[in-house]
Amino acid sequence: MTQILSAVIEAWEEIKINRLRIILSLIGVGAAVWAMATTLALGSLITASNEMGEAQWQGRTGTVSVSAYPDSQPPYMDPYFFEPSFEDEEEDTAPISLDENGRPVDPFGDAVMQTVSRTGATIWTRDRLIVASVQAPGYDGADACDPMYGCDNGPLPEIRGIDPDYFDIYYRPIVRGRGLTQRDGQLQMNPAVVNEWMWKAMGSPDLAGRPRVRLLDHQKVAFTVVGVVQNELYSTGPQMFIHYDTFTGALPPKLAADSESYGFSIVAPSGQQENAQAVMVGTLKAQLGNDYQVEGNFDPERNQSREDGMRTVQIIISVIGGIVILLGALGLLTVSIVTVNHRVREIGIRRAMGASGRRIFFSVFLESVVATSFAGLIGVMLSILTIRLAPLEKIDILVPPGGGAYPMTAAFIGLIISAAVGALCGIIPASIAVRIKPIDAIRF
What we know:
The chain is of the alpha+beta class. The chain has 13 helices and twelve strands. The longest helix is centred in the C-terminal third of the chain and has 42 residues, at about 300-340.
Protein backbone atom coordinates (compact mmCIF):
# COMPACT_ATOMS: atom_id res chain seq x y z
CA MET A 1 0.00 0.00 0.00
CA THR A 2 2.87 2.36 0.88
CA GLN A 3 4.57 1.66 -2.45
CA ILE A 4 1.39 2.38 -4.39
CA LEU A 5 0.80 5.62 -2.50
CA SER A 6 4.38 6.74 -3.03
CA ALA A 7 4.10 5.93 -6.72
CA VAL A 8 0.94 8.02 -6.97
CA ILE A 9 2.64 10.95 -5.19
CA GLU A 10 5.64 10.64 -7.48
CA ALA A 11 3.36 10.57 -10.52
CA TRP A 12 1.62 13.72 -9.33
CA GLU A 13 4.97 15.49 -8.84
CA GLU A 14 5.97 14.47 -12.35
CA ILE A 15 2.70 15.85 -13.67
CA LYS A 16 3.44 19.20 -12.02
CA ILE A 17 6.94 19.30 -13.51
CA ASN A 18 5.70 18.51 -17.03
CA ARG A 19 2.39 20.23 -16.56
CA LEU A 20 2.47 22.21 -19.81
CA ARG A 21 2.79 19.17 -22.07
CA ILE A 22 0.43 17.14 -19.91
CA ILE A 23 -2.22 19.86 -19.68
CA LEU A 24 -2.24 20.24 -23.44
CA SER A 25 -2.63 16.50 -23.88
CA LEU A 26 -5.33 16.27 -21.22
CA ILE A 27 -7.47 19.01 -22.74
CA GLY A 28 -8.46 16.49 -25.38
CA VAL A 29 -9.21 13.84 -22.76
CA GLY A 30 -11.25 16.24 -20.62
CA ALA A 31 -13.19 17.40 -23.69
CA ALA A 32 -13.79 13.80 -24.73
CA VAL A 33 -15.03 12.85 -21.25
CA TRP A 34 -17.24 15.97 -21.18
CA ALA A 35 -18.70 15.10 -24.58
CA MET A 36 -19.19 11.44 -23.69
CA ALA A 37 -20.72 12.13 -20.25
CA THR A 38 -22.99 14.83 -21.69
CA THR A 39 -24.07 12.50 -24.50
CA LEU A 40 -24.80 9.68 -22.05
CA ALA A 41 -26.64 12.06 -19.70
CA LEU A 42 -28.75 13.48 -22.53
CA GLY A 43 -29.44 9.95 -23.70
CA SER A 44 -30.63 8.96 -20.22
CA LEU A 45 -32.79 12.08 -19.97
CA ILE A 46 -34.26 11.51 -23.44
CA THR A 47 -35.02 7.89 -22.60
CA ALA A 48 -36.62 8.90 -19.29
CA SER A 49 -38.55 11.66 -21.08
CA ASN A 50 -39.82 9.19 -23.68
CA GLU A 51 -40.89 6.81 -20.93
CA MET A 52 -42.70 9.61 -19.11
CA GLY A 53 -44.29 10.78 -22.36
CA GLU A 54 -45.41 7.24 -23.18
CA ALA A 55 -46.77 6.93 -19.64
CA GLN A 56 -48.89 10.04 -20.16
CA TRP A 57 -50.47 8.44 -23.21
CA GLN A 58 -50.53 4.73 -22.42
CA GLY A 59 -49.72 4.52 -18.72
CA ARG A 60 -46.51 3.44 -17.05
CA THR A 61 -44.95 0.05 -17.74
CA GLY A 62 -47.44 -2.73 -16.99
CA THR A 63 -50.56 -0.59 -17.43
CA VAL A 64 -53.60 -2.37 -18.82
CA SER A 65 -56.56 -0.24 -19.92
CA VAL A 66 -60.14 -1.16 -20.75
CA SER A 67 -62.70 1.14 -22.41
CA ALA A 68 -66.45 0.81 -22.22
CA TYR A 69 -69.24 2.77 -23.89
CA PRO A 70 -73.01 2.43 -24.04
CA ASP A 71 -74.42 0.73 -27.10
CA SER A 72 -76.10 4.02 -28.04
CA GLN A 73 -72.68 5.70 -28.38
CA PRO A 74 -70.11 5.28 -31.14
CA PRO A 75 -66.82 3.58 -30.25
CA TYR A 76 -64.43 5.62 -28.16
CA MET A 77 -62.23 8.11 -29.99
CA ASP A 78 -59.23 9.86 -28.51
CA PRO A 79 -60.22 13.43 -27.56
CA TYR A 80 -57.15 14.74 -29.36
CA PHE A 81 -58.33 13.35 -32.70
CA PHE A 82 -62.02 14.14 -32.95
CA GLU A 83 -64.14 17.23 -33.08
CA PRO A 84 -66.27 17.37 -29.93
CA SER A 85 -69.96 18.03 -30.30
CA PHE A 86 -71.53 20.36 -27.80
CA GLU A 87 -75.10 19.78 -28.86
CA ASP A 88 -77.39 18.27 -26.26
CA GLU A 89 -78.49 15.19 -28.18
CA GLU A 90 -80.06 12.87 -25.67
CA GLU A 91 -79.86 9.86 -27.97
CA ASP A 92 -76.05 10.14 -27.96
CA THR A 93 -75.72 9.91 -24.18
CA ALA A 94 -75.88 7.07 -21.75
CA PRO A 95 -79.26 6.42 -20.16
CA ILE A 96 -79.66 8.40 -16.94
CA SER A 97 -81.29 6.98 -13.83
CA LEU A 98 -81.22 8.19 -10.25
CA ASP A 99 -81.07 6.26 -7.00
CA GLU A 100 -83.22 6.93 -3.93
CA ASN A 101 -80.87 9.77 -2.90
CA GLY A 102 -81.20 11.51 -6.25
CA ARG A 103 -77.66 10.66 -7.32
CA PRO A 104 -77.04 9.23 -10.80
CA VAL A 105 -76.72 5.47 -10.96
CA ASP A 106 -73.29 4.56 -12.34
CA PRO A 107 -73.24 0.92 -13.52
CA PHE A 108 -69.73 1.28 -14.93
CA GLY A 109 -68.23 2.69 -11.72
CA ASP A 110 -69.91 0.01 -9.62
CA ALA A 111 -68.71 -2.72 -12.00
CA VAL A 112 -65.14 -1.44 -11.79
CA MET A 113 -65.22 -1.45 -7.99
CA GLN A 114 -66.38 -5.07 -8.01
CA THR A 115 -63.67 -5.95 -10.52
CA VAL A 116 -61.02 -4.31 -8.35
CA SER A 117 -62.29 -6.22 -5.34
CA ARG A 118 -62.22 -9.55 -7.18
CA THR A 119 -58.84 -9.10 -8.87
CA GLY A 120 -57.09 -7.58 -5.84
CA ALA A 121 -55.68 -4.70 -7.93
CA THR A 122 -53.75 -2.18 -5.82
CA ILE A 123 -52.98 0.55 -8.40
CA TRP A 124 -56.02 1.43 -10.50
CA THR A 125 -58.18 4.26 -11.73
CA ARG A 126 -61.45 4.96 -13.45
CA ASP A 127 -61.51 7.70 -16.06
CA ARG A 128 -64.31 9.74 -17.62
CA LEU A 129 -63.91 12.86 -19.73
CA ILE A 130 -66.11 15.77 -20.77
CA VAL A 131 -65.46 19.20 -22.26
CA ALA A 132 -67.41 22.09 -20.67
CA SER A 133 -67.38 25.87 -20.24
CA VAL A 134 -66.16 27.12 -16.86
CA GLN A 135 -65.57 30.46 -15.17
CA ALA A 136 -63.36 31.65 -12.34
CA PRO A 137 -62.17 35.06 -11.09
CA GLY A 138 -59.80 36.41 -13.72
CA TYR A 139 -60.07 33.28 -15.86
CA ASP A 140 -59.98 33.61 -19.63
CA GLY A 141 -60.02 30.33 -21.50
CA ALA A 142 -58.12 31.82 -24.41
CA ASP A 143 -55.21 32.59 -22.07
CA ALA A 144 -54.99 28.88 -21.24
CA CYS A 145 -54.10 28.02 -24.83
CA ASP A 146 -50.65 27.68 -26.30
CA PRO A 147 -49.95 30.96 -28.14
CA MET A 148 -48.45 29.05 -31.07
CA TYR A 149 -50.69 25.99 -31.41
CA GLY A 150 -53.91 27.11 -29.73
CA CYS A 151 -56.03 24.65 -27.73
CA ASP A 152 -57.07 21.10 -28.49
CA ASN A 153 -60.73 21.87 -27.75
CA GLY A 154 -60.69 25.62 -28.17
CA PRO A 155 -60.75 27.53 -24.88
CA LEU A 156 -62.95 24.89 -23.23
CA PRO A 157 -61.14 22.80 -20.60
CA GLU A 158 -61.22 19.05 -20.33
CA ILE A 159 -62.81 17.86 -17.09
CA ARG A 160 -61.70 14.38 -16.07
CA GLY A 161 -63.25 12.21 -13.40
CA ILE A 162 -60.49 9.98 -12.04
CA ASP A 163 -59.29 8.07 -9.00
CA PRO A 164 -56.17 9.22 -7.09
CA ASP A 165 -53.85 6.63 -8.67
CA TYR A 166 -54.40 8.26 -12.07
CA PHE A 167 -51.56 10.74 -11.46
CA ASP A 168 -49.15 7.90 -10.71
CA ILE A 169 -50.24 5.63 -13.57
CA TYR A 170 -50.20 8.35 -16.22
CA TYR A 171 -47.29 10.35 -14.84
CA ARG A 172 -48.86 13.67 -13.95
CA PRO A 173 -46.61 15.01 -11.17
CA ILE A 174 -48.00 17.61 -8.76
CA VAL A 175 -46.06 20.88 -8.98
CA ARG A 176 -48.12 22.87 -6.44
CA GLY A 177 -50.53 22.00 -3.67
CA ARG A 178 -51.63 18.38 -3.47
CA GLY A 179 -53.21 15.66 -5.53
CA LEU A 180 -56.56 14.00 -5.01
CA THR A 181 -57.32 11.49 -2.25
CA GLN A 182 -60.04 8.88 -1.84
CA ARG A 183 -61.72 11.11 0.73
CA ASP A 184 -62.11 13.96 -1.78
CA GLY A 185 -64.98 12.19 -3.52
CA GLN A 186 -67.15 12.76 -0.44
CA LEU A 187 -66.28 16.40 0.24
CA GLN A 188 -68.80 19.09 -0.64
CA MET A 189 -66.00 21.49 -1.60
CA ASN A 190 -65.42 19.26 -4.66
CA PRO A 191 -61.57 19.34 -4.67
CA ALA A 192 -60.02 19.71 -8.11
CA VAL A 193 -56.54 19.68 -9.59
CA VAL A 194 -55.80 21.79 -12.67
CA ASN A 195 -52.88 21.74 -15.09
CA GLU A 196 -50.37 24.57 -15.38
CA TRP A 197 -52.08 26.03 -18.46
CA MET A 198 -55.34 26.50 -16.59
CA TRP A 199 -53.70 27.69 -13.37
CA LYS A 200 -51.80 30.43 -15.19
CA ALA A 201 -54.98 31.46 -17.05
CA MET A 202 -56.60 31.94 -13.62
CA GLY A 203 -53.86 34.42 -12.72
CA SER A 204 -51.70 31.89 -10.83
CA PRO A 205 -53.76 32.22 -7.63
CA ASP A 206 -52.47 31.19 -4.21
CA LEU A 207 -53.96 27.76 -3.52
CA ALA A 208 -54.18 28.63 0.18
CA GLY A 209 -56.97 31.02 -0.80
CA ARG A 210 -59.01 28.09 -2.16
CA PRO A 211 -59.72 29.47 -5.64
CA ARG A 212 -63.03 28.27 -7.08
CA VAL A 213 -64.02 27.20 -10.58
CA ARG A 214 -67.70 27.09 -11.62
CA LEU A 215 -69.50 25.54 -14.54
CA LEU A 216 -70.66 28.37 -16.77
CA ASP A 217 -74.08 26.81 -17.50
CA HIS A 218 -74.54 25.42 -13.98
CA GLN A 219 -73.49 28.13 -11.52
CA LYS A 220 -74.36 26.04 -8.48
CA VAL A 221 -71.68 23.50 -9.37
CA ALA A 222 -68.30 24.74 -8.12
CA PHE A 223 -64.90 23.13 -7.59
CA THR A 224 -62.09 24.13 -5.23
CA VAL A 225 -58.60 24.02 -6.74
CA VAL A 226 -56.27 22.22 -4.33
CA GLY A 227 -53.36 21.37 -6.63
CA VAL A 228 -51.61 21.96 -9.94
CA VAL A 229 -50.16 19.23 -12.16
CA GLN A 230 -47.41 19.53 -14.71
CA ASN A 231 -48.63 20.09 -18.26
CA GLU A 232 -48.94 16.97 -20.32
CA LEU A 233 -46.26 16.60 -22.99
CA TYR A 234 -47.58 18.12 -26.26
CA SER A 235 -50.75 19.24 -24.46
CA THR A 236 -51.87 22.74 -25.47
CA GLY A 237 -55.02 23.32 -23.44
CA PRO A 238 -56.55 23.62 -19.97
CA GLN A 239 -57.40 20.52 -17.97
CA MET A 240 -59.15 19.96 -14.66
CA PHE A 241 -59.16 16.70 -12.69
CA ILE A 242 -61.80 15.82 -10.12
CA HIS A 243 -62.48 12.67 -8.15
CA TYR A 244 -64.55 10.10 -10.04
CA ASP A 245 -67.24 10.19 -7.34
CA THR A 246 -67.35 13.99 -7.68
CA PHE A 247 -67.73 13.58 -11.43
CA THR A 248 -70.76 11.31 -11.09
CA GLY A 249 -72.22 12.98 -8.01
CA ALA A 250 -71.64 16.72 -8.45
CA LEU A 251 -71.94 17.22 -12.20
CA PRO A 252 -75.43 17.57 -13.70
CA PRO A 253 -76.49 14.05 -14.79
CA LYS A 254 -76.87 14.92 -18.48
CA LEU A 255 -73.50 16.64 -18.57
CA ALA A 256 -71.77 13.70 -16.88
CA ALA A 257 -73.48 11.33 -19.30
CA ASP A 258 -71.86 13.16 -22.21
CA SER A 259 -68.63 11.26 -21.52
CA GLU A 260 -67.27 9.90 -24.76
CA SER A 261 -65.78 6.92 -22.96
CA TYR A 262 -65.57 5.10 -19.66
CA GLY A 263 -62.00 4.03 -18.91
CA PHE A 264 -60.54 1.61 -16.38
CA SER A 265 -56.79 1.10 -15.91
CA ILE A 266 -54.67 -1.01 -13.59
CA VAL A 267 -50.94 -1.71 -13.28
CA ALA A 268 -50.40 -5.43 -13.72
CA PRO A 269 -47.26 -7.44 -12.86
CA SER A 270 -44.73 -7.91 -15.65
CA GLY A 271 -45.79 -10.65 -18.05
CA GLN A 272 -49.34 -10.75 -16.68
CA GLN A 273 -50.80 -7.89 -18.73
CA GLU A 274 -52.68 -10.03 -21.26
CA ASN A 275 -54.17 -12.25 -18.55
CA ALA A 276 -55.15 -9.15 -16.56
CA GLN A 277 -56.86 -7.66 -19.60
CA ALA A 278 -58.83 -10.84 -20.23
CA VAL A 279 -60.00 -10.91 -16.59
CA MET A 280 -60.93 -7.20 -16.66
CA VAL A 281 -62.88 -7.44 -19.90
CA GLY A 282 -64.66 -10.63 -18.86
CA THR A 283 -65.60 -9.34 -15.42
CA LEU A 284 -66.85 -5.97 -16.72
CA LYS A 285 -68.91 -7.62 -19.45
CA ALA A 286 -70.50 -9.90 -16.89
CA GLN A 287 -71.31 -6.96 -14.61
CA LEU A 288 -72.54 -4.52 -17.27
CA GLY A 289 -74.47 -6.95 -19.43
CA ASN A 290 -75.55 -5.95 -22.91
CA ASP A 291 -75.98 -2.23 -22.19
CA TYR A 292 -72.26 -1.54 -22.68
CA GLN A 293 -69.55 -2.65 -25.05
CA VAL A 294 -66.21 -3.38 -23.44
CA GLU A 295 -62.85 -3.40 -25.22
CA GLY A 296 -59.31 -4.00 -24.01
CA ASN A 297 -56.63 -1.56 -25.18
CA PHE A 298 -53.46 -3.45 -24.28
CA ASP A 299 -51.36 -4.25 -27.36
CA PRO A 300 -48.38 -6.52 -26.59
CA GLU A 301 -46.74 -5.74 -29.95
CA ARG A 302 -46.89 -2.00 -29.31
CA ASN A 303 -45.49 -2.54 -25.81
CA GLN A 304 -42.60 -4.60 -27.22
CA SER A 305 -41.99 -2.00 -29.93
CA ARG A 306 -41.81 0.67 -27.24
CA GLU A 307 -39.17 -1.28 -25.29
CA ASP A 308 -37.18 -2.02 -28.47
CA GLY A 309 -37.19 1.67 -29.37
CA MET A 310 -35.82 2.64 -25.95
CA ARG A 311 -33.12 -0.03 -26.22
CA THR A 312 -32.12 1.19 -29.70
CA VAL A 313 -31.73 4.76 -28.46
CA GLN A 314 -29.49 3.60 -25.61
CA ILE A 315 -27.30 1.54 -27.98
CA ILE A 316 -26.87 4.42 -30.43
CA ILE A 317 -25.94 6.85 -27.67
CA SER A 318 -23.46 4.37 -26.17
CA VAL A 319 -21.78 3.89 -29.56
CA ILE A 320 -21.49 7.66 -30.07
CA GLY A 321 -20.01 8.06 -26.59
CA GLY A 322 -17.52 5.25 -27.28
CA ILE A 323 -16.35 6.87 -30.53
CA VAL A 324 -15.87 10.21 -28.80
CA ILE A 325 -13.76 8.77 -25.98
CA LEU A 326 -11.76 6.64 -28.45
CA LEU A 327 -10.71 9.76 -30.35
CA GLY A 328 -9.61 11.39 -27.10
CA ALA A 329 -7.67 8.24 -26.12
CA LEU A 330 -5.78 8.17 -29.43
CA GLY A 331 -4.71 11.77 -28.92
CA LEU A 332 -3.53 11.06 -25.38
CA LEU A 333 -1.63 7.93 -26.45
CA THR A 334 0.25 9.86 -29.12
CA VAL A 335 1.25 12.64 -26.73
CA SER A 336 2.23 10.11 -24.02
CA ILE A 337 4.62 8.27 -26.37
CA VAL A 338 6.18 11.54 -27.52
CA THR A 339 6.55 12.66 -23.89
CA VAL A 340 8.37 9.45 -22.88
CA ASN A 341 10.75 9.81 -25.85
CA HIS A 342 11.62 13.28 -24.57
CA ARG A 343 12.29 11.89 -21.07
CA VAL A 344 14.93 9.34 -22.07
CA ARG A 345 17.72 11.23 -20.26
CA GLU A 346 15.67 11.59 -17.06
CA ILE A 347 14.61 7.94 -17.01
CA GLY A 348 18.14 6.73 -17.86
CA ILE A 349 19.59 8.68 -14.91
CA ARG A 350 16.91 7.25 -12.60
CA ARG A 351 17.84 3.73 -13.74
CA ALA A 352 21.53 4.52 -13.09
CA MET A 353 20.62 5.68 -9.57
CA GLY A 354 19.04 2.31 -8.84
CA ALA A 355 15.39 2.70 -9.82
CA SER A 356 13.97 -0.69 -10.74
CA GLY A 357 12.14 -1.37 -13.99
CA ARG A 358 8.98 -1.99 -11.99
CA ARG A 359 9.28 1.41 -10.30
CA ILE A 360 9.81 3.13 -13.65
CA PHE A 361 6.85 1.25 -15.18
CA PHE A 362 4.42 2.17 -12.42
CA SER A 363 5.67 5.75 -12.30
CA VAL A 364 4.92 6.37 -15.97
CA PHE A 365 1.78 4.25 -15.88
CA LEU A 366 0.29 6.06 -12.88
CA GLU A 367 1.15 9.45 -14.37
CA SER A 368 -1.29 8.65 -17.14
CA VAL A 369 -3.95 7.24 -14.81
CA VAL A 370 -3.79 10.13 -12.31
CA ALA A 371 -3.77 12.75 -15.04
CA THR A 372 -6.71 11.28 -16.98
CA SER A 373 -8.71 10.71 -13.79
CA PHE A 374 -8.28 14.39 -12.92
CA ALA A 375 -9.22 15.37 -16.48
CA GLY A 376 -12.22 13.06 -16.28
CA LEU A 377 -13.36 14.71 -13.05
CA ILE A 378 -13.18 18.14 -14.69
CA GLY A 379 -15.02 16.81 -17.75
CA VAL A 380 -17.81 15.34 -15.61
CA MET A 381 -18.18 18.58 -13.66
CA LEU A 382 -18.48 20.54 -16.91
CA SER A 383 -21.00 17.98 -18.15
CA ILE A 384 -23.15 18.43 -15.03
CA LEU A 385 -23.01 22.21 -15.50
CA THR A 386 -23.97 21.83 -19.16
CA ILE A 387 -27.01 19.70 -18.38
CA ARG A 388 -28.09 22.06 -15.60
CA LEU A 389 -27.96 25.09 -17.89
CA ALA A 390 -29.37 23.41 -21.01
CA PRO A 391 -32.95 24.47 -21.94
CA LEU A 392 -34.24 20.89 -21.92
CA GLU A 393 -37.93 21.85 -21.95
CA LYS A 394 -37.46 23.86 -25.13
CA ILE A 395 -36.29 20.75 -26.98
CA ASP A 396 -39.31 18.72 -25.81
CA ILE A 397 -37.49 16.79 -23.06
CA LEU A 398 -39.96 16.21 -20.25
CA VAL A 399 -38.36 17.36 -17.00
CA PRO A 400 -39.76 16.44 -13.55
CA PRO A 401 -40.83 19.30 -11.26
CA GLY A 402 -37.82 21.01 -9.73
CA GLY A 403 -35.58 20.07 -12.64
CA GLY A 404 -34.21 16.76 -13.83
CA ALA A 405 -31.44 15.19 -11.76
CA TYR A 406 -28.15 14.58 -13.55
CA PRO A 407 -27.92 10.83 -14.27
CA MET A 408 -25.27 9.58 -11.87
CA THR A 409 -24.64 6.63 -14.18
CA ALA A 410 -23.20 9.04 -16.75
CA ALA A 411 -20.93 10.58 -14.08
CA PHE A 412 -19.64 7.20 -12.87
CA ILE A 413 -19.11 5.96 -16.43
CA GLY A 414 -17.21 9.14 -17.26
CA LEU A 415 -14.89 8.78 -14.28
CA ILE A 416 -14.34 5.05 -14.78
CA ILE A 417 -13.68 5.36 -18.51
CA SER A 418 -11.29 8.29 -18.00
CA ALA A 419 -9.25 6.17 -15.56
CA ALA A 420 -9.46 3.18 -17.93
CA VAL A 421 -8.28 5.32 -20.85
CA GLY A 422 -5.39 6.50 -18.72
CA ALA A 423 -4.49 2.92 -17.89
CA LEU A 424 -4.66 1.74 -21.49
CA CYS A 425 -2.77 4.76 -22.78
CA GLY A 426 -0.18 4.39 -20.00
CA ILE A 427 0.80 0.78 -20.70
CA ILE A 428 2.57 1.45 -24.00
CA PRO A 429 4.59 4.48 -22.82
CA ALA A 430 5.42 2.66 -19.57
CA SER A 431 6.64 -0.36 -21.53
CA ILE A 432 8.85 1.94 -23.63
CA ALA A 433 10.20 3.57 -20.48
CA VAL A 434 11.16 0.20 -18.94
CA ARG A 435 13.37 -0.61 -21.94
CA ILE A 436 15.42 2.59 -21.49
CA LYS A 437 18.93 1.84 -20.14
CA PRO A 438 21.35 4.08 -18.22
CA ILE A 439 23.61 4.30 -21.26
CA ASP A 440 20.75 5.84 -23.18
CA ALA A 441 20.93 8.87 -20.89
CA ILE A 442 24.46 9.55 -22.12
CA ARG A 443 23.57 9.10 -25.79
CA PHE A 444 20.45 11.28 -25.56
